[in-house]
Amino acid sequence: MSRLRRAAGRVWQVASIPLLAIVLAFIVAAFVIVVSSVFTSSGLDVFLPLGAYGSLLAGAFGSGTGISNTLVAAAPLILGGLAVGLGFKAGLFNIGVAGQFLVGAFAAAVVGASLAGAPGAVGVSLAMIAGALGGAAFGFIPGLLKARTGAHEVVTTIMLNNAAVLLLTWAVNDLVRAPGFSFPRTGDIGNSALPILLGRNVHLGIPLAVLAVFAVRWLLDRTTNGFEIRTVGQNPNAARYAGMRPVFVTTLTMTLSGLLAGTAGAIQMLGVIGFYAPGITASVGFDSIAVALLGRSDPIGILFAAILFGAFRAGAPLMQIETSVPIEIIDIIQALVILFLAADLIVRRVFRVRATKPVISELATVARTWAGGTPPGGTP
Amino acid sequence: MSEVPAVLEMRGITKRFPTGTLANDAIDLEVRKGEIHALLGENGAGKSTLMNILYGLVTPDEGEIRIDAQPITIHDPADAIARGIGMVHQHFMLIPVLSVAENVVLGQEIVRAGGVLDLSEAGTRINLLAKKLGFDIDPSSKIEGLSVGQQQRVEILKAIYRNARILVLDEPTAVLTPQETREIFEVLRRLRSEGASIIFISHKLDEVLEIADRITVIRRGKVVGSRRPRETNANDLAELMVGRAVSLRVDRGRSHPGESMLEVAGLRAKNDRGQDVLHDIDLSVHAGEIVGIAGVAGNGQEELVEALIGLRKPTGGRIRLGGHDLTHASVDERRDRGMAFVPADRHKYGLVLTYPLDDNLALTRYGDRPFAGGFAGIIRNFRAIAENAIRLMKEFDIRAPDPKVPAGTLSGGNQQKVVVAREFRHDLRLLVLDQPTRGLDVGSIEFIHKQVIGRRDSGAAVLLVSAELDEVLDLSDRVLVMFRGRVVGTFLADEAQREKVGLLMATGGAAA
After folding, report:
1. pLDDT tens-digit profile of B416-474?
2. Contact B363 A225 (CB under 8 A)
3. Tell me: domain B247-338+425-512, CATH 3.40.50.300, correct?
4. Fewest 10 Å CB contacts: which of A79, B22, B289, B369?
5. Are residues B488 and B295 in contact, defined by beta-carbon separation less than 8 angstroms?
C-alpha cells in the first residue's frame, strides 16, 4: 500500500509540472479564444472556450472515429518523440528528426512501390526496414560528424533537414518519378500498405509505435548500452573515466534516434500518405521536439504527450466546425505548453507546487546546445 | 572575558529530513561581533544543513534565530542577505563568462538613467572594497580566467558588497593550495578587524586551530562541545568530532615489495592547452609497495595519472602493467588488467551526481559480471548492483538513507567514500590515487589510509599523488618528487625528511 503511495508520489514528482503546464496553457488559451470571439463569432462570448474545448474533446475521444484519428495522428509523434528524447538522454539535441522522417518516408515509399505487387508481408516488412535504415543513415551522419570532429549536431541536423528536402525533391523528379501522374510522385505502394487493424484507418504502425516505447524504455533502463547513453548525457567525463567511449555512444545514439525518426516516416508513408511527393509535410519533426520536452524524455511520458498532441490534431476540425474557433488555436496551446515547461517557475507560482526542483536536463540540453556549449566528450 | 554582544544566536535548531534523518538536533550556536567562529564536524554531521537554515535555503522544524537579539525568520536567501548574512559556498556560484564586476553586482546592478548598466561606477566601488580587504583584483577580468583562489575572493567580495556582517564560508580551504590558504586567512583576519563576524566551516583541525577564536564541534546533528584554540589541541578536537580516539598518524608497518607491477619509461604528454607537461617520466611501482608523488600542484601530476589510466594520450614513452604494454590501451582494457583510479575531481570524473548510489558504486565496472550479463552480456543485473551497493555502504560507512538516493545529495566526504569504495576492488593490481582524502574528515582519512595499507599488504601496487605532503610522507614506502613535469628526486621512506622533500618540491633541486 505504502509502496503504491510512494510510486504515485514519484510519478507526481516528475509529471506534476508537465500536467500543470497543460492546464495553464488551456487557461491562457481560453483568454485568447474569448478575445478572438469578437472577430470569429457573433460577439464577445465568455463561454466560448468551454464550448470549444468540449468540441475538441468530443472530436478527439467522443467517437470511435475520433479515437482512431487521435491514434493515427499520435503514432508518428510517438516515434518522433522517442527519437528526440533518446538524443536528450545522451545530451544531444537532434533537430534533424524532420529530415530523418522524410528520408524514412521516401525510402519506404520507393521500396513499397517497387514491391507493390509482392505479398503484403514481404512488401510491408522490407519497406519498413528501408524506412528505418534510411532514417538511421541520416542520423548516423551528424552523429559521426559530432563524434569525430565535434561538429555541432544542432547545426548539422538543421542543414541536413534542408539537404533532405532538396535531395528528395530531386530524386522524385529525376530518379523515381512514377509515370502517369500530372505531378512528380512515387508510385502506388499497393500491397505494401500497412494493414488496417480496426475501423477505417487504425493501421499496424500504431501498435508498432507503442512497442517502440517499451523497447526504448528497456534499452535505456535495462541495458549497458542505455546506461552508456545516459552516462554520456549526464557526465561525459565520468563516462570516459568509467571506460565508455563517448565517440561510439554519440554515433550510436544519433543513429538510433534517426532509426526511430525514419520509422515514424515509414509508418506515416505506409499507413497514411501512400506516396512520396515533394512538399509532403514534415511538421512531425518539429512537433516531436515538443512531445519529447512535454514527456520529459521518458518513453512513457512521450507516449502520453504524443497522444495529447495527436488528440489536438484529431479534435481540432470538429472544434472549428461547431464553434468557429480556428484550428490554429491548437498551435497556440502547444506553444504555451512548451513555454510554461521552460518557464516552470510560472507554473510553480500559480499552482504553489513546492516539490523539489527536478533537473530538466532536456531543456538544459536545448539551452546548452543552442548556446554552443562544449560537446559532450570534448575532442575524441 | 569581556562580554562582546552576540550578533547571531541560533537556539534549539532542529531539522528532520523526510527520509527520517535528524540532521540538526536542538543545535545552539552563538556568534559574536568581530569573531571567527569555526564550525567543526565530520562529513554529514549537519554543519551545512545548519548554515543552509541560516541562509534561508532550508526551513527548520524547530528553533529560533536572532540577529542583534531580535528574533527573525528567514524565508529565502534574499531575506538572509537583507539581514546582513553572506555565504560563500564550497562550489562557487559565479558566472564564468561574466566579469568580476558583473558577477559582484549581479542582482544589485547600478543603473543609469534609461536603464543602462553602469559598470564603471560598480568597478570603482569594487576597487575601493578590494583595496580595503587587501585584494589585488581587476574588476573587468572574466571569471573563467581567474584561479580558484581568486574566484573565492570574488565570492567574498560579492557578500561584502551586499553589506554582509555575518559571513559564512563553507569549507573555504578545501579547494585552495597552501599558499592560497594563507592568503585567505589574511583576508579573514582583516575582515574580523573591520568588525565582521565569520563562520568558518571546516574539518581540518590545524586550520581551525590557527584561525578560529572559538570552535563549536558538531557530531551527528548535535553540538558536542565548544572550545577556544588555546584550551585544546588536534587530538582533543578529533576525538570530540569522531566520538572516539583517533590516531592522526598512520602505522604503515613494513612493506614487502614483490615483483615490479607498473613500469613507466620515458613517458611524455601534453596538457589540455597543448603544452608539453611531462618530460621523460621513468618510474616503477612494485606489488605490495606504495609510491608517493610529492609536488606542488600543477607540476604534471594530474597529467601523469590521467595518462596512466588512459584518459590522456601519451606523446611518447611506454606504460607497462605486469608485463603487458598498455601505452595505447583503452580505459576499459586497463581496468580489465586490474587498474583502478581514484580521481582528484570527484564531480568531474568520479561520480554521476544525478545517478543513485548503487549505479555510482558500479560505475566503472558496469559492463562486467556480475553487473551485466544475459543476452550478449548487455543486460544489467540490478540485484547484483543493489547487493554491491549495500555491501560497500556498510564496509565503507557511507552514510545515506538508502542506495537509491542520488549521489549529489550526499556530503562531500560521503561522495569521496563512494568513489574510494568502488575503486578499492579486491582483484586490484595497480591502484592510482589522486588526492584520495581531499575534503575528508579525520575519521574518514584514518579509515581510508588503513584501507590503502591493507590493499598494499594484500599485494597491490599503489601510486599516490597528494597535495598534502604529510599524507605522502606518512603513507609512502618510496617518495618521488615531481617538478615541472620531471621526477627530480627519489627518497626511501626513512630518508624522506619533510624539509628535504619540501625544498626539492619548491626548487626542483640544483639540476633543474
Report:
1. 999 999 999 878 899 999 989 877 778 888 888 999 999 999 999 999 998 788 889 98
2. no
3. yes
4. B369
5. no
